[in-house]
Amino acid sequence: MPSKKAVKNYGVLQKFLNSEFPNATTALIYKTPFQLLIATILSAQCTDVLVNKVTLKLFRKYPNSKKLSTANIEQLKKDVYPITFYNNKTKSIKSTAEIILKEYNGEVPKTINELIRLPGVARKTANVVLGHAYNIRSGVVVDTHVLRVSKRFGLTSSADPKVVEQDLMKLVAKKDWIKFSDQIILFGRKICSARGDKCNDYPAIRKLCSEAIKLTKNKTVLKRKTK
């Protein structure tokens, strides 16, 4: 069961997220479940802005699993560049396309157990695809933003994505899993960033954030030393 602190902090954070990001959704641009799957694989440790720039051309050449599965691997690497880790990701998306075409008749599977069998697909990617392509609530997306925010706001004490996801699934109502994932990712990008303090204008949530509290204490100590 979630701690009382986690429940309380989540309640405050949820109200803030609903107010600031009521229409949050994935930033990835796609037309089909297959395109979303490929875009999400490419987005690992890479910005959505860069992914969208690359997939704009990529999906024109390879709009479906049949086209992508028959792509020349060396040419495909050039098409995927400058995505981070493009060599490995190129192999993953081509292999994934081949499996989907052969085993699923070109259709992206609708269960998390089937999805995580695909090259380059872990629970994060599977949750994004199931949530946005099929509106299936399979879990909570845990990326670097979700990890950071969840830890700072006391929603979890773990740094393990699998544990964090389980903690959040116990805390957040299932009907909100997709929306919460999108909201907290956007919150992490725009306000609760990895570099420094951007929440000065939001006192209601600032007082709950361990990083903001630490920064405040450090500033207080520094002022005392300089007097």
Describe the structure.
The protein is mainly α. The chain has a domain at 33-134: Orthogonal Bundle (Endonuclease III, domain 1). Helices cover 63% and strands 0% of the residues. The protein has 13 helices and no strands. It has helices at residues 4-20, 33-42, 48-61, 65-69, 73-80, 86-104, 112-115, 123-134, 144-152, 161-171, 177-190, 203-206, 210-226. The longest helix is centred in the middle third of the chain and has 19 residues, at 86-104. The chain is elongated, with a radius of gyration of 20 Å. The N and C termini lie far apart (46 Å).
Considering the chains and any ligands shown, give keywords for the structure.
single chain; 227 residues; mainly alpha; Endonuclease III, domain 1; 13 helices
Short description:
With 227 residues, the protein is an all-alpha fold.
Give the secondary structure arrangement, pairings included.
Blueprint: H1 4-20, H2 33-42, H3 48-61, H4 65-69, H5 73-80, H6 86-104, H7 112-115, H8 123-134, H9 144-152, H10 161-171, H11 177-190, H12 203-206, H13 210-226
